Sequence to fold (646 residues):
Amino acid sequence: MMRYKLNIVYIILLYILAILTPLGLLAQKPSKAANLFEKAKLSMQSHDFVKAMNYLNQAQAKDPNYSDIYIMKGDIYNFQLKSDSAMVNYQHAIDLIGDPDPMLYFIAGSEGAKCGAYEYTLNTMQLFLQKGIQYSEVHPDAQKIIANCRFAIDAMRHPRRFELVNLGPNINSEWDESLAAITADDEQIVFTVKRPRDQQTVCAFCLNEEDLYFSRRVDAEWSPRQAFGSPIKTGYNEGAQCVSPDGKYLLYTMCDADYGIGSCDLYWAKLMGGRWSRPRNFAAPVNTPAWESQPTMASDGMTIYFASSRPGGYGGMDIWVTTMTAEGEFSIPENLGPEINTPGDDAAPFIHSDGRTLYFASNGRVGMGGYDLYYATRLPDGTWTSPKNLGYPINSPADEINIFINASGTMAYIASDKDGGFGGLDLYSFELDDQLRPNPVTYIKGRVRDAFTGDPLEARIEMIDLSTKQLLTSTTSDPKDGSYLACIHTGGNVLLNVSHPDYPFYSENFQLERSYTELSPYLKDIALQPTDVGTVVALKNVFFDFDRTELKPESFVELDRLADYLRKNPALRIEVCGHTDDQGTDEYNDRLSENRAKSVYEYLVGKGIPADRLQYKGYGKRVPVADNGTEEGRAENRRTEFKIIR
Fold:
């Protein structure tokens, strides 16, 4: 599902080769090998490279100093993507000619860059710039290749930590496996498999078919992979997918479908009760008659990045972003701008579960050559930092087109055709260098149920940064079994809010330091209390400084949720309850707890809740919920609650 395009300069070069080689790059005198060379030229024009190479080998045996033989051999290896052999033959021709057409330096250097001969390419491209003044239209490309060589030489002197581990025979096969996507709990992997076409393949001109497969982790091992069945699988090409961090949404690409809008379109499906819903086309304004592919969803459950060749971008392929405003409804996509996109191709976006670190592939920036992998960070004002190259050997002279980083930021997953695999592209993991890691993310998972009946509930689960009020994570629990999975961001003061229209909300607070070690997940079943008289709800995100009664600003997010809950349930009347630990006198604790409860009361009144629906009371230290003999217990006892009294 990666869309490759021939660079216009490369097309020009092929044209130059076509006109130079038949005429003889040096207009050599006829030799006894000339007849064989002419036969090779005719075979070359018919794209019969095997026969052409056979004639060239015979010609070389008769006249090893016939330079055009080596130029045509270089052309054949060029077309066969054997850059190292192409470079050797072009250079041999240069050595024989002595002072060739300067374009031959450029062509030889271009092939050298593709196979990682950076020092050679650097020298050859500098010769081209010195001698090839007439080829000024190609000079910018030569200068870019020189910049790439200098970057690559330096990068190879400072390699990143990179030790690939094959994901094994339960994932990989003799076919091509690529584009891994993993849920936030590391329990499920989804990937694309390119296999030979079969009788189920609908695409008439496709030699291969791409399908989606998945595997679940069992006892730290990946289980044998399984193909997605109906309704996800069709006879068309499906791939270039992502799974939302909560595992609820599958976003993917389908190409060449008769009912599509463009050559490749984005589709989505939702997991409910262990089964995927019927896939739906994103439709306009996301899909267009152009090419849309490679979606990735942020942990907020709404922000979706994707690659597209639609008009209005900065290059051939650009990265765009849309917002799922309601299920199946999407905002008009916005281009990420020149901070991310280049006049080249920028694609394969992956937004980490931290919601701010974007990894992507680009051939429009200085790098190792071809497509390299880069990353950038979204700042609080919505702008992006300057993208950074992931370095060597993560990037190489070949095309690197995709990377996935797990939620904790420690492991990366890529596809590679390195020796020792199972065949074609295989999926590998490697430990990510510390300098390249995003903010680590852990997760909370469990089930949401009715506290009285035990029935599963479809509840809204949100994580909100209390300092910025930014929505970090948004998901819903499964309506059939109540299961949920939600990301917890580190490095901030984060509120967990679980809400259902028929129940008082439930809240938790998380304050996790940034750390590059494995973070322990939270496993928690959540029981929502019924809306009955006497129900008590803890406000775990209401904060006061020591010995103070003024609300801290971080409290406002939770109290705004409480005010909204009261507006939606106008018949409710509540009591705000303040509690302390057992430190201090009874009089002091009663006064402190009552004044804190009063601050909450006054905040709600200020938000438009009628005062006759509210009352407040301080209970001091008389109603502990934990042992006051420990600091942890005393912290639990210092709390604010509300109680339904009518």
User: Anything to note?
Assistant: The two ends are 59 Å apart (CA to CA).
